[in-house]
Design a protein that fits this description.
Blueprint (H helix, E strand, L loop, with lengths): L1 H6 L5 E3 L6 E7 L3 E6 L5 E5 H10 L7 H6 L7 H11 L8
Antiparallel strand pairs: 1-2, 2-3, 3-4
Amino acid sequence: MLWDRIEALKGCTIHTFAKHKPFHILDVKDHKCVIRVESSGKVRNIQRIDFEKALKLRSISTLNPAILRQTGALEANPTYVLAILKHLYPDDIPVS
């Protein structure tokens, strides 16, 4: 299950796919993933539903932050959502 895989990333450092900027997964709770952006130290909350919305759109390899914003799937944090999904599914997964 997706959320179990995200929970397993707690404590990990992941890099954004375009600019390779690191961020840390601080905590994963029932409905949100808490990250800290290394360059700014800013803490961001990413809602569980944001990951689910992104996966419903199309295959991960064809997604980018602009598509997530344009479709209305994600207004906030699309870069981090995609980085986490691409980390979890490097070989892509089929759209459900």
